[in-house]
Structure formats: C-alpha cells, structure tokens
Specification:
Helix content is 36%, strand content 25%. The protein has 223 residues and is an alpha+beta fold. It has a four-stranded mixed beta sheet with strand order 1-2-5-4, sandwiched between helices. Strands 3-6-7-8 form a four-stranded antiparallel beta sheet. The chain is elongated and about 65 Å long. 30% of the residues are buried.
C-alpha cells in the first residue's frame, strides 16, 4: 500500500472495511476483527493508529506482525490467510493487515481454555463494529459455501404466500414467516435462506432483528 493510500484510509475513519488499533491487544480480540472482515466483505486493520485517527506507530513491527499471523492461524477456524505490510508515515511504522472476503466462511473465533481450544463465535462487520453474527447470517454463509449442496428452488404455496406478504408489508422476519405459513422457525429460515441464495430475497442486518425483503424492493426501510 502506498503512503497516500494509507493517509486516505485514515482520513475516512473507521468503517465497515477499516478498523484502527493503537496496538495489539489479545489474540482472541484480534481474531474477532479478522473473522468479522473475512465473513463480510473484507477490509483493513491498521495497527499504530488511534481511535481518533492519530498516528502513534508500533514499537516493533516484527512482533506485531508475528502476533497477528499467530491469531489468524491459531485463533480462527478455519485459519485465515492474511496480507501484512508495514507503511512508514510521519516517521512512524503502521502495520497494515488486509483481510480478504473469504470463500470458506463462516469463520469462528477459537478461544483458548485451560490449554485447549474450543470453538467460539462467528462475527461479521456491521458499520464500524465487529458483532456476533445472527443465526440467519450463519445459515446463509453455510449455504453459500462452495461445498454446499446444489441449490434446488421450488415455488409452492408457502413461497407464493411469502411473496404476497412482502408485496403488502415490504419486509418479513423468520418468526413472522413461520407464523404466516405455520411451520417451524428452522424450516422457515431454511426456505428464506434458499431464496436469498437464488437472489430472490435480500437479508438485512441493520436492525435488532434481521429481516428479509424482495430484491427489487426499494421501500424496505419503511415502518
């Protein structure tokens, strides 16, 4: 990354694709950020940059890089391949970690417990934060995995009632769909995710409860 590119990233502030870190904290916390970017659209973690965008630099870029790579390899499942470089700016070293959007998602944070590792939580990037992924998001990631079963789409009575509901109300949650067609939440989620994979529906995560809209629905923010 060129110096002017790094300046531009810092000037734009933290976002869905950029996270500032004054220094390395713990492998679990860094793994959380790595997971979130990999599970979403990818992004950058800038070590040596404070929350307000001021450049403080890192004391030892080699140690910082080693710690980040260790977190990506041993605290993320499946492990992540990341790109790390050091960019000098204002006579200080900033460690730039690039995490690409992964085709192996969902990635989970693996936490250490009494000398052993246990499977942790799936995180995604939402605005400028890394947050725990909803059940809907995790299911969608699994369905979109390259090794997932081929998509089979059938439009029956349940799907037709769903489309009619969306035409009238604009959005629907898993619980609402389950009640609408009198099926379990698990089955409702399965059907909704399948329609997202078929690019018929869109999953929205910008509210306390995830919801679905039709792909061409421009009024999904109403209510």
């Amino acid at each position: 990354m060129k110096r002017h590119q790094l300046r531009q990233l810092i000037a734009e502030g933290e976002s869905a694709s950029v996270e500032f870190k004054r220094r390395f904290t713990s492998p679990e916390k860094i793994a959380k950020e790595l997971c979130a970017f990999a599970n979403t659209h990818g992004g950058y973690i800038l070590f040596g940059v404070d929350d307000d965008g001021s450049i403080v630099g890192v004391e030892s870029e080699k140690e910082e890089i080693e710690r980040v790579r260790h977190a990506a390899e041993f605290y993320v499942e499946p492990p992540l391949a990341i790109t790390v470089e050091v960019v000098e700016i204002e006579w200080k070293d900033v460690v730039v970690v690039h995490v690409a959007a992964s085709t192996e998602r969902p990635h989970r944070v693996v936490e250490a417990s009494k000398g052993q590792h246990r499977r942790g939580i799936v995180y995604v990037r939402s605005r400028a934060e890394s947050v725990q992924a909803s059940r809907e998001m995790v299911r969608l990631m699994r369905e979109q995995h390259p090794d997932a079963a081929p998509l089979r789409l059938y439009i029956g009575d349940r799907e037709k009632r769903l489309f009619a509901y969306l035409e009238k109300h604009g959005r629907i949650t898993v619980a609402e769909f389950a009640r609408l067609v009198n099926i379990s939440r698990r089955r409702a989620l399965q059907l909704l995710v399948r329609l997202v994979r078929a690019q018929v529906l869109v999953l929205h995560t910008d509210a306390p409860t995830n919801y679905f809209t039709l792909v061409d629905d421009v009024s999904s923010d109403r209510h």
